[in-house]
Amino acid sequence: QVQLVESGGGLVQAGGSLKLSCAASGRTFSNYHMAWYRQAPGKEREFVARVRWSGLTYYADSVKDRFTISRDNAKNTMYLQMNSLKPEDTAIYYCNVDLYGLGENYWGQGTQVTVSS
Length: 117
What we know:
The protein is mostly beta strands and 117 residues long. The chain has no helices and 11 strands.
């Protein structure tokens, strides 16, 4: 079992910044990808950003050049630095861990990000 604990969500004005964190714990594991997804009210969950075990990153077009994903493998922790936030970024943000060598994946509880105009 893997547990994911998120922090850093909150309420900010348009143009502001937030930094989300996701810490993984529980069963010992290695060789895993990490990603952020989000779900706005009335919308389906969508991909935001991914950082692979190799360090390769990929971003959704809607957040590219504004968000930065990173990871600290020694601490099993992932971060999402969000700058120049827009009201359209308002959503519940979910942490995801993909244990690709084991065919397992896990989700965090979600953290609310609200951007006011």
